[in-house]
# Entry
Amino acid sequence: MATRAKAKKRRPAAKKRSLTEYKRKRDFATTAEPVARRAPRRKQELPIFVVQHHKASHDHHDFRLEHDGVLLSWAVPKHVSTDPTVKRLAVQVEDHPLDYATFQGSIPEGEYGAGTVKTWDIGTYEPEGDFAEGLEKGKLSFVLHGKKLKGDWTLVRMQPRPGERPGKPQWLLMRHHLTK
# Structure
């Protein structure tokens, strides 16, 4: 009886990150936000993260992680918490250009995200494991090296509830307990 050789499990090619949604939502003749363009991959540098305080229709933090030439972005409605016992909802929004990491200012009324944006924290991060695979599977673990945020963090994608309308992916952002 002939045996079949096990087929090697191939991981699909990583989806190229796009700024199409970012561009679609903005009028760059009206807003001072950075124009959407992918940044070239930086060599031998840790990727950056930024947390921006965004006073818009709802006061929140925007949590952003550099990946594949863009900033992956989540809106955190109750602000990022450094308390390891607190899990925060983080709603994934459109990818932003890397230049957005240094954007501060006002987005005019009538524009998407109208309100003020200020940097709350910025630094670098070290992904734990394969970041692209973690993104696909819905669990990202990383170490933040910021001025305010330091240490081990995780983002975990939640499954939609039965009957829930599909929308923006919802994640939980949490800090790991400190170990001695």
